[in-house]
């Protein structure tokens, strides 16, 4: 499974949970946000991480301090460049583990930023 496949799997999963897809792969000079979604009036920035095994910390272990900061800065850029008002927002992480029978773990408000 490739990164694009993992992002599609995550988007499909989140849409089945009631979220609405707004944008994919938002890129700016600060970084990239995999998925931007809406959930009951809240803007949700989603990072998708996929690993074939739990070795070396698995998918969760791949979210470093530097990666988190890039996501936060990219989200601020998105908010300032695309929206007139700043809505309530959160950062979610979708962890996908396994190659043949992937397991999805959705962590809401993963960074404690609201």
From TrEMBL:
Keywords: Endonuclease, Hydrolase, Nuclease
GO molecular function (one): nucleic acid binding
Pfam families: UPF0102
InterPro entries given in the database record: Restrct_endonuc-II-like, tRNA_endonuc-like_dom_sf, UPF0102_YraN-like
Gene3D superfamilies: 3.40.1350.10
Sequence intervals crossing the membrane: none
Family note: Belongs to the UPF0102 family.
UniProt protein name: UPF0102 protein SAMN05216326_101149
